[in-house]
């Protein structure tokens, strides 16, 4: 579903991403960890076709992203740290609009059903997005993915700034999408949430994937140690 083949991005002399090889299959949640500047967002931007690789390739649903930028977008949903929705439109109106541009025209009752599935309280369906908390906006993001019937979900720091309850709810939604066969790639600083939701976890540094784990094969404390050893947090030694 999501494949990167020696994916590399250079900015002048700087290598932001260095020969990344990832394979995220149907029903898998791959969490990418790494300190600031490790190359996580660059990976996601390349998969979205927002930027072009210097070398290597990215594939979504077996289509080369660089060669099929529009077609690959049909299969994916993207939730960044701050999801851009129309603040003066309601949750239902936003969902209707974004699923519409993805080619899915849903009835009002189906739109409500999808919002319900995403965990949004029914009283919020007809409220403007400008009144929503971040957690509520992220739920609308998941609703858009559900309405679109996305096969691939790309997430960049989706739980940053969420309170623990909202973050937990978001994790449960990812599990729900997983059972529907969605392949998810999530860039995050949240080691705890990564351990909770991931099937696989990768740790990046300086654009390289340094370590990979099957989430069930590692404890949270082992993961934390591996992370700190990888990113080499010298300031912690003070
Ligand atoms: N447009 C750009 N021009 C030059 N350098 C860039 C550009 N975008 C990213 N970089 C560099 O590429 C490297 C990887 O950045 P990236 O944003 O992918 O890291 P990240 O792991 O997502 O970090 P964060 O956790 O802070 O979001 C960094 O050194 C960054 O400065």
Automatic annotation (TrEMBL):
Signal peptide: none annotated. Pfam families: ABC_tran. InterPro entries: AAA+_ATPase, ABC_transporter-like_ATP-bd, ABC_transporter-like_CS, ABC_Transporter_VariousFunc, P-loop_NTPase. Keywords: ATP-binding, Nucleotide-binding, Transport. It comes from the Bacteria. This is ABC transporter ATP-binding protein. One of its GO terms (molecular function) is ATP binding. It comes from Flagellimonas lutaonensis. Residues 2-231 form the ABC transporter domain.
